[in-house]
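#onboarding

Welcome to the new folks! Below is a worked example of what a typical request in this channel looks like: someone posts a single protein sequence, and someone else replies with the predicted structure as tokens. Don't worry about understanding the tokens yet, we'll cover that in week two.

Example request:
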Amino acid sequence: MPDNAVIRRVSALDLKVESGAWSWAESRRADIDAHFAMRQREKPGIWNGQVLLARNADFSDGKLSSSYFRTDFASFLAWRDWGFPDRDVFNGFGMGALRSADGAFVLGEMGGATVNAGRIYFPAGTPDPDDIVGDRLDIAGSITREIEEETGLTPADYQAGQHWDCIAVGASVAIIRILTVDMPGEALKGRIEANLARQTNPELSAIHLARATSDLNASMPRFVTAFLEHAFANSGALS
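Example response:
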């Protein structure tokens, strides 16, 4: 595995949500607003809601701890598009790695109306205020919501793994939990495709199965391919 992807396994998450403004975004407000207006002309369906970004990741005692803060999607998008200029901040988001009974991982291809059009990855989303419980960010709840929105599957359809695999690549930390579905890969793929066909504006344009490294491609972000490479190499070690 290339050294630009680091996998850390944890059994618990402690993700505190704190108040306070993002000084970098405040200093670039006019540029950010202009950038978002341009991106919105390209993708009219995007909107400037609130999201959460993170600081101060600590991996110790089998736990990931970090602090999250609220910002707007325009600031997040500019920070991402401009190469992550504030290096003290990272995008820490949950992903549900759907795995079928016969070992295939199920990934979705983002539709053309999204800012990640053509990218292939597990159901996921940048955390938002709906994922806050008390003063903590509920990544498990975020994953549940994204899985249902994108695939139609609910917690009754899968068994969640006991661990989280945190894949750090640059300014991203994908917090991944395996969700095992008791049906073969092709049947699971067909069920999700049928759900997408019933949606008016689905986020996903296609469903892909990955059974081996030969199924990986350049449309998958590095945190996804790193996770899958490790999973295939260790044959179930990421359960």
